From TrEMBL:
The gene is pyrC. It comes from Alistipes inops. This is Dihydroorotase. The active site is at D301. Transmembrane segments: none annotated. Binds 2 Zn(2+) ions per subunit.
Length: 430
């Protein structure tokens, strides 16, 4: 069946142009002034057509923790947010550390996924940070890269060996950077808010020291290397210098680090994640990083937990917040509408950049897979976590007034989400 998306503004070749998009057999068959007979025509005039958003850092909790999120609920949240491809972190049970364990997850993805879900394999066996590396070679063809997200790889020799193997296999190491010996039981940023309210802080050094170590290991091994959820100004500067040196280094940050500072915290679990939201200076450095291209990716680090796990305040709650259903509107409202960033740059950070870096799409062009998100950038509404399709509801953006809503998501040309404004009722087939 052909589908004609008529009259929208289409992101193509780095800019928005007024054009129709024809979708046929799962791919974009044409972009331009089209009139096609025997196609289902959807009037998208006034809407923006973006290459489907790509999130290289999510937690879907299966296998092992279905009570927090399932592949079905997580990928439904993704579809609603405008994402067509997401990459799942491997802090699971069993963790994907061998072909067999990865196979368990792949089967669940085949059964439950609403959008494209591509897993990471672990770096270490059982993701325990020990000396035994995962069976990277056996997992190579099915994973986007290797990560021990949730913890840093503490031993230099283990990370070096992992980088050598990943380089041999032509896959990236995607690193959660955290030096355990510098944590001292901290759970929010070691800054003004922690001092004022008597909380134990996580120092910036615990992140950037490991970024610094890893960049030195990249110099030695030539491994493609990507830093997860960068939160400190020092990490941004280290990545900036590594890139200037020509090293194969990239990094991501997440929406909450770009629009909040530690002084926005409240005594609630929905403000607790790892790494923590840092100071105003850190936030400013991250914004400069997305403006000058040092940071090429915005990922959500969508990390759902149960209501009970997030109900224990800052000290007692689990680390992690959800993000897939709020990322685009929050950043569109706070960065694009406030002239910090162009809409085109935001599309690069949320789709084109991660798509290019990880080989996961991020274009609307003839012949490309028809992974498309249709946004109504004029829609204004209030974020209410009770409406989320995710099982996780902990968000620091609760109650925010935002603008910009995804109204339709196509994955390989298949409509997976359509909202009421386009005559749909959410996830298609749900
Ligand atoms: N970001 C978080 O606060 N939590 C993540 C782990 C991680 O991303 O490091 C989780 O798995 O819950
Ligand atoms: Zn992490
Ligand atoms: Zn994570």
């Amino acid at each position: 069946m052909k589908k004609l998306l008529k009259g929208g503004k289409v992101y193509t070749g780095g800019a928005f142009v007024r054009a129709d998009v024809l979708v046929e057999d799962g791919v974009v068959a044409g972009v331009g002034d089209l009139s096609v007979s025997q196609a289902e025509t959807v009037d998208v005039s006034g809407k923006h057509l973006l290459p489907g958003l790509v999130d290289v850092h999510v937690h879907f909790r299966e296998p092992g923790f279905s009570y927090k999120e399932t592949i079905a609920t997580g990928s439904s949240a993704a579809a609603r947010g405008g994402y067509t491809t997401v990459c799942t972190m491997p802090n699971l049970n069993p963790a994907p550390d061998t072909a067999e364990h990865l196979g368990v997850q792949l089967e669940m993805i085949r059964q439950g996924a609403v959008v494209k879900v591509v897993p990471y394999g672990t770096i270490t066996m059982r993701q325990n940070g020990g000396g035994e590396l995962s069976d990277m070679a056996a997992m190579r063809d099915e994973v986007v890269g290797f990560s021990d997200d949730g913890r840093g790889v503490q031993e230099d020799a283990v990370m070096e060996a992992a980088m050598r193997e990943a380089a041999r296999l032509g896959k990236p190491i995607v690193a959660h950077c955290e030096v355990n010996s510098l944590l001292h039981g901290g759970y929010i940023h070691d800054g003004e808010y922690a001092r004022l309210h008597g909380h134990r802080g996580i120092c910036s050094e615990s992140e950037w020291k490991q970024v610094e170590r890893d960049i030195e290991l990249v110099r030695r091994t030539g491994c493609r290397y990507h830093v997860c959820h960068v939160s400190t100004r020092e990490s941004v500067e280290l990545v900036r210098r590594a890139k200037a040196e020509g090293l194969p280094v990239s990094c991501e940050t997440a929406p909450h680090y770009l629009v909040l500072t530690d002084m926005d915290l409240r005594e609630e679990g929905r403000f607790k994640m790892n790494p923590p939201i840092r100071s105003a200076e850190d936030r400013a450095a991250l914004v400069r990083g997305i403006q000058d291209g040092t940071i090429e990716v915005v990922a959500t680090d969508h990390a759902p937990h149960s209501e009970a796990e997030k109900a224990k305040g800052l000290a007692g709650s689990a680390f992690g917040i959800v993000g897939l259903e709020t990322a685009f509107p929050v950043l569109y409202t706070r960065l694009v509408l406030e002239d910090v960033l162009s809409l085109e740059r935001l599309v690069e950070l949320m789709s084109v950049g991660p798509g290019r870096l990880f080989g996961l799409g991020g274009t609307i062009a003839p012949g490309a897979p028809a992974d498309i998100a249709v946004f109504d950038l004029g829609a204004r509404y209030r974020i209410e976590s009770a409406d989320f399709l995710s099982k996780g509801h902990a968000t620091p953006f609760e109650g925010w007034e935002v603008q910009g809503r995804n109204v339709m998501t196509l994955v390989d040309g298949r409509e997976v989400y359509r909202d009421a404004s386009l005559g749909g009722c959410g996830i298609v087939g749900a």
